[in-house]
Design goal:
Elements lengths: L4 H13 L12 H6 L4 E6 L14 H10 L2 E4 L5 H4 L9 H12 L3 E5 L11 H4 L6 H19 L3 E8 L13 H6 L1 H15 L4 E6 L7 H19 L6 E4 L2 E3 L6 H21 L3 E10 L7 H19 L5 E6 L8 H5 L21 H17 L1
Parallel strand pairs: 1-2, 1-9, 2-3, 3-4, 4-5, 5-6, 6-8, 7-8, 8-9
Helix pairs in contact: 1-3, 7-9, 11-12, 12-14
Bound molecules: ligand G3I.
């Protein structure tokens, strides 16, 4: 009998947990538990040459974790322009093809991240330096990109981050780059989503951004800007199905978890209510917890990360419009958080469900409890 990925997962996490690492046995995978509430769970995955200790499916230890816990995958980097558009006139799909083949072969569903990542600093050098002679030239470049990617993968990608991070957090306005200037920010958004809808008619089309529930000034402006962007898309009839809430949440210095939650929850719910009120679905696309400012002691830190993650997910999972939850990596050993924002004490960040030795952490337990609780609300 061929098991579905979900049936296999229910047993897989238990096997992983009872392996030589002698961890406590997990009763079911995160995806299986999320499934009780009609949801799905997944993670980012990278590609690296076999033999490298990386968050890649070619690393057997990481692959085992993905296969035990997840039904959804998203490439951490390998579908970005930096990887597939190393030169203006060509595409290089080798790394992403390897991810897509792995995902398809193992029965994962695959998200496409991303067809256009707006800030200039993430463009390949040739694109950042490009001077467009006309709007038509920029339009040709973007539509060609979307059509090429979407036609190559067809129904193998069920959901795309069509545009990523179009809003400048400090101002709430659309970002100003050589590409957005050539077309106009709104026209660029409309072009990307219309082209994606034509080229991938069955895919879920997502606007993805990192506005967060923490109440800094930038977060407030960012949230306002994203709402304005979403309103504009609806008003103009642009085909967008969902808001991708990246969910790189972060513990704040000296503020107890309960205090951050107390300040964040109400305004964040107001934001989400407005978003779903406009008819958008929600996707948690890149969940992790930045513990940059949390204390060094592991037990206390893991507790804070778990409590904070749980409080956040409690709010998010209250929305039936949220179906898919993806972590931005499953294991602290490979988290992007260390590369970008290392801790002052030089210890590894602990913002994912598994620690650097592949042992499940309180965050994993909290997520499982949240998914189970959300499941019981839906039956
Ligand atoms: O692989 C090279 C390595 O050979 C080299 O020694 C090293 C030196 O810097 O760089 C390595 O590549 C890095 C790559 O990640 C692999 O780890 C790149 O410099 C680095 O820029 C790249 O960062 C990625 C970042 O996006 C930029 O593309 C992170 O992995 C990835 O997690 C991050 O993901 C973003 C989402 O796409 C959008 N939302 C925010 C999220 C986190 O920043």
């Amino acid at each position: 009998m061929k098991l579905t990925r979900r049936q296999a997962l229910a047993g897989g996490a238990a096997m992983l947990a009872s392996s030589a690492l002698a961890r406590p046995v997990a009763p079911a995978s995160l995806d299986a538990i999320a499934g009780e509430g009609g949801r799905r769970f997944g993670s980012a995955v990278a590609w690296a040459p076999p033999g490298l200790d990386a968050g890649s499916f070619t690393n057997p230890r990481y692959a085992a974790l993905l296969e035990a816990e997840c039904a959804l995958l998203v490439p951490e980097n390998q579908l970005k322009w930096q990887w597939v558009r190393r030169a203006p006139d060509s595409f290089d799909f080798r790394a992403f093809d390897a991810i897509a083949d792995y995902a398809t072969g193992r029965g994962f569903k695959l998200r496409g991240h991303t067809l256009f990542w707006t800030p200039t600093k993430w463009y390949p050098k040739w694109l950042a330096e490009m001077r467009f002679g006309s709007a038509a030239e920029a339009e040709r470049l973007l539509t060609n990109h979307v059509r090429t990617v979407c036609s190559r993968y067809g129904d193998r990608i069920y959901s795309y981050d069509v545009v990523n991070e179009a809003v400048q957090p400090e101002t709430g306005k659309l970002r100003d780059t050589n590409v957005t200037r050539a077309l106009g920010g709104e026209a660029l958004l409309d072009l990307m989503f219309h082209t994606a809808r034509e080229a991938a008619p069955h895919a879920q089309l997502v606007y993805n951004d990192y506005m967060s529930w923490e109440r800094t000034h930038d977060d407030k402006r960012h949230i306002k800007g994203v709402l304005k962007l979403l309103e504009g898309l609806r008003r103009r009839g642009t085909p967008v199905d969902a808001l991708g809430v990246q969910s790189h949440i972060r513990l704040l210095e000296k503020a107890p978890v309960a205090e951050i939650v107390r300040q964040s929850e109400k305004p964040w719910r107001r934001f989400l209510d407005e978003v779903v009120g406009m008819g958008y679905q929600l996707v948690i696309t890149e969940f992790d917890v930045n513990d940059h400012e949390a204390p060094t002691a592991i037990l206390a830190r893991d507790r804070m990360v778990a409590d904070y993650g749980k409080a956040y997910l409690d709010v998010m999972l209250g929305y039936p419009q949220l179906q898919d939850v993806l972590c931005w990596g499953m294991c602290d050993r490979y988290s992007w958080l260390d590369g970008f924002d290392p801790r002052a004490d030089e210890t590894l960040k602990r913002g994912t469900p598994y620690d650097a030795n592949f042992a499940p952490k309180p965050l994993r337990t909290a997520m499982a409890a949240d998914f189970a609780q959300a499941g019981s609300r839906h039956v």
